[in-house]
## 1
Amino acid sequence: MTALSPGATLGIVGGGQLGRMIALAAANYGLKVHVFAPDADSPAFDVAAESTLAAYDDADALARFARSVDVVTYEFENIPAETADLLSAIAPLHPNAAALATTQDRLSEKAFINGLGIPTAPFRSVGTAGDLAQAIVEIGLPAVLKTRRFGYDGKGQRMLRPGEAIDPAAILAEFGGVPCILEGFVAFEREVSVVAARGADGTFAAFDPCANTHRDHILALTQVPAPGIASSTADSAMEIAQRIADAFDYVGVLAVEMFLVAEADGSERVVVNEIAPRVHNSGHWTIEGALTSQFAQHVRAVCGWPLGDPRRPGGVAVEMRNLIGDDVDEWAALLAEPGAHLHLYGKGEARPGRKMGHVTRLLLPP
Ligand code: AMP
């Protein structure tokens, strides 16, 4: 891969806050950005030199977009595989289409992870009511039924509890009859993620694993270092992310979401939940909390540039809190708080559950 020069144009597919923050990081390196997104009120459009407002299956618009840029990346992993193929036939696409296709489907994603010898929850593919009944027998309850595709923030999933009256046909009908996966419930102690980058030359740089707390299935709080995590567990979490990135011949930032499970002997075990082939909400703390932000790191990787240093200066502890729905009304108080780093995404309406911004605090010693 030839390295791009400042002044080149980075194409970003997807126009949400992740695309917006990639675009801001790209601007810092003298790059131009062209955002392709289907929603007129996409937050990334506000900060891009060029925008294309078109559907992800608009082949003509995609081709024009790809011809206008030097490299294409994405901030949204549910773009159709055909879209990725069309783009990558015209311009370099990073991360590659295979990483996208594998991680779009929870079944192929888990099979891929297990194929690397990395543990996940036990799982079964569920296409029919008979499959679901059989999967419940094999996996046991509690278990989590998820759609194979298009799930996010807890959407497209449902817990199945022991003692619950379960009608497999009715449950699958609730899911709209789409292909599903049944996962064994993991009694985890903590949820952590590793946000990491792999450069075009195969170099790898992970940010420290962070602990993630969800509210109503949406990330509420990220803390780094993850409170109480053993350094051997942190090392194995980062090593897992590296094996995944290497196996995909990945270029860019990825996030690996994991469960930490406490063993009877006091040790901790890492179980991978899912891979996001993109920058990730649990990496927002890196903007102020690391020597290189996840967004700058992603831009460096997809441009074929050397990766930056992912360490926390002085090992500082960092907290990032999402501003969800009307949390954003706190903006004035947060601006007045010394040391609170406020980020607003420029979204119009603060609907419940909508990520409107985030605030990062470095927990400096007194
Ligand atoms: P996901 O969409 O797979 O990230 O799941 C959303 C959230 O549901 C996770 O962050 C966990 O809190 C919970 N969850 C998902 N799968 C499992 C599982 N197999 N066992 C326990 N909790 C789960």
## 2
Amino acid sequence: MSKGTEAVRASGTPLRVLLEERETRILDKRAQLSSRSRGRLRSEEECTLRTAFQRDRDRIVHCKAFRRLKHKTQVFLSPTGDHYRTRLTHTLEVSQIARTLGRALALNEDLIEAIALGHDLGHTAFGHGGERVLAELIPEGFLHNEQSLRVVDVLEKNGRGLNLTMEVRDGIVKHSKGRSDPILARTGEKAESLEGQVVRLADIVAYLNHDLDDALRAEILDPSDIPDEILHCLGNSHSRRIHVMVEDIIHASLEENLVEIRMSSEVLACVEQLREFLFEKVYDIPRVRVEFERVRKIIEDLFNVFMKDDEVFGRELGALDGGVSRERQVFDHIAGMTDRYILDLYKRLFLPRPWMKF
Ligand code: MG
């Protein structure tokens, strides 16, 4: 038994309190301490074993929306190849990169992990294509970061939500406004905590690198297509490029005494160039646009049938919820579906069924 474990047994102090004390000893003074959390939407008794942010992380890992991430597209729709990223593996890569940053900067890794694991819970099926179609279907629009917050606040646990801390909620909703958003967030749109800002940059580091890797795997790109300036500045392998970006964020943020989490202007310029390159050669190419039109048709057809057909609505969604509009209920339902669930449902509702009796 370690000395630490003996101390816990002997003192009778809840482990959570000892962990909170440890945070004050080892974290930077700008880190968000769990003992200083602004609390939850509904107040709850603290756990004896875990800090508030550890508890939030566990709630996210145990929720249904988290499990659905494994069947949601990252970039390539319902890929049959086992090595392509899904929204779940993207989330895990973000979490690992963010925790490396957090440990180097002596920030609260538990808060970072909770925000990272929850940041994309509101992502639709079919990646950003699905998000765009839904955004056109309702007047108030649709952003996946806002839907992530809605998932944890309202939709999980049959309408009760996960009741997460304010710091995790803030980090989730401010992680991004979409791909055209500037890499360094505008003042006023940044997460309140440095931990939230870490996740925002880790998300960008993760997706730029793994989307490039997946595009090479899919042979949409050839390694010789990557511009020399990008290779020169960021390195000529997947792991090297992640390393360069992570190291740069650590140094640039420490240079400014952790006033904010940032990149140096030189690396930022290369990262922006890489993003432009991916838009031009991967995200917005004719092959992707053809798929997008198919995704649009599927989502629009489902939306219309749920809005107009009471029988289908009742069978698939259950009773109408008096608290929100039918439109919102349909919208939340479709936004939560995985790629494969949507395709199966579409087949079930709209395609003729083969006659199986011989
Ligand atoms: Mg993400």
